[in-house]
Description:
- By secondary structure, the chain is α+β, with helices and mostly antiparallel strands.
- It folds into 4 domains: 2-37, no CATH class; 44-144, no CATH class; 150-252, no CATH class; 262-340.
- The chain is 44% helix and 13% strand.
- It is built from 13 helices and 13 strands.
- The chain has helices at residues 22-31, 39-63, 73-94, 100-113, 119-124, 130-144, 150-160, 191-200, 221-234, 244-252, 286-290, 309-319, 325-340; strands at 2-7, 13-18, 161-162, 173-177, 181-185, 204-205, 210-213, 239-240, 262-265, 275-278, 296-298, 301-304, 322-323.
- The strands form 3 sheets. The protein has a 6-stranded mixed sheet with strand order 3-8-4-5-7-6. Strands 11-12-10-9-13 form a 5-stranded mixed sheet. Strands 1-2 form a two-stranded antiparallel ribbon.
- Helix 2 packs across helix 3, helix 3 runs antiparallel to helix 4 and helix 3 packs across helix 6.
- It is flat.
- The termini are far apart.
Amino acid sequence: MAQYSVTRACGHEEIVNLIGKHKLREWRLQNVEPNKLCSSCYHAELARQREKATSEAVEAAKAMELPVLAGTEKQIAWAETIRQEVLLRAEGFLHGNITDEERGNLMSGLDELQKIESARWWIDHRDINLRELGKLLIKTAKEQQTLPPKSVVDAAKIEATVRPENTVTETVAEIRALESSIEIWFPEKREDFREIVRYNLDMDWTGLCWKRKIAKHNGTSQDRAAESGHRLLAAGFPVRIFDDETRQKAIEGSYEPEHTRWIMCRTTGGYAGYLVVRWGKGEDYYRAAKGVNGSRYDKPDVVVPPEHFAEVLDFAQIYDFRISTGAQKAIGSARLAWESILTVIVTPPAEKKLVITDGKPPVLEIPNEVGIADEFRD
């Protein structure tokens, strides 16, 4: 170890201790140490950066109308920056790949999280990762949730429940229309109920409830929830739907029926770009679809090359298949390509005239002498 006097980047002289070989120490004295701040200026710069970050966090907290933190001066200064970072990470988590139910819980948890005033709490949770933060938000929401009186809950349930005249059970099926799915919660195990939701409503059991994802071609989740309620009421099952309009549609059967026959476009896989013929459960258009030129079976659909779009359109018109937006674009592109192809008129070549004989082979003349050509002699 050796001591050296170094002029720092701030202009102050400072004694440094260096170890290692002579060449390494010389290199550090020329390329590293002169570029650093002296200890006093370094700590002053850190303090300035902390003050700036704290000031920006305080201003952001005021703009967001967050509560004033409680704690010591140093704790508050540190916790202000931590709170801003955690809240930003929470927002990112909320917009990530999570379910609608999780997003609803997290939104409630985030509201509660923003109310936390303890500087110490923010410091203790400064290193929490996004997944843990999500669990914490859910836990916080549940812990902070103020449940309404049981009488209020019961009154809301009664208002949302409809019972058919001839009921087969007193157990109520609660139907929930989410943004891109519908759920049916039914705590009783019945085979007749299972057949309706599984085979008529195309729903799957999640382990907690029956659920179905709703895509654009399925219609709206409200219409599918109303259809579910209508079918169950007709089968004798009481239903509970909290949305007034959806509940009334279920009673009247005034929902938009789901159209199950579609011409779509495959976007991935071995048949990417092909037109897809798809029909609903309980329907069978396999033979008719296979009659289209170029069609192939790709379970559970029949796929057709887009150049056969004219036949596909005829098929769709005959059997009342609708054309999805993606399929319309694919058909438009195929039509444009077909119309752009060079069209020519070709005259067929003249056929050779067929010479008809009496059917007998010609008589060959026998030579007087037979010998071997010189080139074939040994």
